[in-house]
Design a protein that fits this description.
Elements lengths: L1 E7 L4 H5 L12 H17 L4 E5 L2 H14 L3 E4 L18 H4 L1 H9 L12 H18 L4 E6 L1 H13 L16 E7 L2 E4 L20
Parallel strand pairs: 1-4, 2-3, 2-4
Antiparallel strand pairs: 1-5, 5-6
Helix pairs in contact: 2-3, 6-7
Length: 213
């Protein structure tokens, strides 16, 4: 059995400024770096890590590197672990999205599993991309414990796909918080969840996306 620890990146500049950051390469905030360090310490104290994979976007890569450095293992960047391609939404304030793209943003808020970012990727396409990447990683690291540093939408979409069979019920699944840890197990082509969105180790440093995102 292969265990994957999905870690959402620490708080980024885009999170703090409420900007849609998809492929937009927002760096970690100071608080996000501290979150990454605390999550790295939690993981190293509770798991024997063999390797770290991370989205190539800096906020996720830096989060993953904190774990890799503390565990003394290698880190590999994977474009397939990126956040959703936001197309025309990239770098736009969330407050402006319902004004500029009212129809698409209404779907994002009310039925996110069916949305396509204008000029970008659909949530369903994101889910297939991430699941393909994770399956490849799991098969290449059979029996090992691997950290996956990625983003909020991939983690939420993946949970919907693996627990409900698609993205139709994704609206009922909450966002995980920054630098949280989710356990995912893979064996003989089947996926199972352990803890989801664990962040108790962050205490008063915990941050999450607001309800209107």
């Amino acid at each position: 059995m292969t265990r994957l620890l999905l870690v959402r990146h620490g708080e980024s500049m885009a999170n703090r400024q409420a900007i849609f950051s998809g492929y937009y390469d927002a760096e970690l905030e100071k608080n996000g770096r501290v979150q990454a360090e605390k999550t790295a310490r939690y993981i190293v104290n509770n798991y024997q890590i063999d390797k770290v994979y991370a989205s190539d976007l800096s906020r996720a890569y830096e989060t993953g590197k904190a774990v890799a450095d503390l565990a003394g293992v290698s880190i590999v960047s994977k474009e397939g672990l990126r956040e959703i391609n936001g197309g025309k939404w990239e770098g736009v304030l969330f407050a402006e999205l319902p004004i500029l793209y009212p129809e698409e943003y209404k779907i994002w808020m009310n039925d996110i599993g069916k949305v396509r970012c204008p000029g970008g990727e659909s949530v369903a396409e994101l889910g297939q991309r991430v699941l393909k990447t994770l399956t490849e990683i799991a098969c290449e690291n059979e029996g090992k414990t691997i950290v996956i540093a990625t983003h909020a939408t991939p983690i939420r979409t993946l949970e919907s796909m693996l627990r409900t069979g698609g993205t139709e019920e994704m609206q009922t699944i909450p966002w995980v918080s920054n630098a949280s840890v989710t356990e995912l197990f893979y064996e003989n082509g089947e996926w199972k969840y352990g803890i989801i969105g664990y962040d108790e180790h962050l205490s008063d440093l915990r941050t999450k996306l607001p309800d209107d995102i």
